[in-house]
Design brief:
alpha+beta; 4-stranded antiparallel beta sheet; two-stranded antiparallel ribbon; 3 helices; 6 strands; globular
Length: 111
């Protein structure tokens, strides 16, 4: 099953810095095991563009649409057996401590 893993900042990171995971080791391990299909860091919110269409009119604005202190800073595309495995993969990512991880399964559009 494929999951999109959003890597996000958080205003309240973990303060326990003992045994902090290394992101390069996390990437290498999950690439080696075939669980990480793709991933990358994203440019900051100052580079974001929001696109909407309302009543047939194109509305383009600079920056993210959401007014929030947290932001998506990267993503990883995972292939896992199930949600439990995806949670274990996300749990080991450094941003699970420094920020937050959101997992979303891909919809099965054939149903």
């Amino acid at each position: 099953m494929k999951y999109l893993m959003f890597v996000c900042t958080d205003t309240a990171p973990d303060t326990d810095r003992s045994d902090w995971p290394d992101v390069e080791a996390w990437v290498a391990e999950n690439d080696r095991r075939g669980r990480r299909l793709d991933g990358n860091a994203l440019a900051g919110t100052s580079a974001a563009t929001t696109v909407r269409v309302r009543n047939g009119e194109l509305l383009v604005s600079d920056g993210p649409f959401a007014e929030t202190k947290e932001m998506i800073v990267g993503y990883d595309l995972l292939e896992c057996a199930d949600l439990d495995e995806a949670i274990e993969v996300a749990r080991a990512h450094p941003m699970a401590r420094e920020g937050r991880i959101e997992l979303r399964p891909f919809m099965d559009l054939d149903d």
